[in-house]
Amino acid sequence: EIQLLESGGGLVQPGGSLRLSCAASGFTFSNYAVNWVRQAPGRGLEWVSGIFAGGGSTYYADSVKGRFTISRDNSKNTLYLQMNSLRAEDAAVYYCAKSAGYNSAWTFDYWGQGALVTVSS
Amino acid sequence: DIQMTQSPSSLSASVGDRVTITCRASQSFSTYLNWYQQKPGKAPKLLIYDASSLQSGVPSRFSGSGSGTHFTLTISSLQPEDFATYFCQQSYNNPFTFGGGTKVEI
Lengths: 121, 106
Description:
heterodimer, A: mainly beta, seven-stranded mixed sheet, B: mainly beta, six-stranded mixed sheet, globular
């Protein structure tokens, strides 16, 4: 059974930093791109960042570029999102999402349960 | 950025109804379009990929169609477990944008 389990969410002050982790199991993690997608309370979905299987290619939404860094450790089957210079508008549930395959890197077939990030003073 | 516009934003329906949700893109991109279902407090679930391909395990009452800029998700006979919010998403160009969602309620 494919599982994605996020951790690291919490309350942070504006301008602060947080690192999210996503532990993957049930599939060959090193063969798939993985992504972060967020959802502000009561709002829609926003793709945040993605990283290809080998970790050499990373992609970001303009809203987080330069502040967030995606990375992965294939030996630990874990995805990360380092979030710096956090703003109120970054507050959301952050989902880890697995890409469907090589030709479907931006189709998300499995999602974690989400990690809540609150940005407030 | 490609803007994805869903309509309606919400709809009321009954069990057994045929329901159609529309998604329009601000630029054409063939069939790089996915549909997700989300229930309250849960993660989204992939229903349809590549505009019309049914994800494994998804009931056949769900179907998708369209290409270019106009796409539809159809539920042929609404079931109680289908009351949820549905999102379209383009997988063609960074940023991989989602529609605003359609809430299907009783």
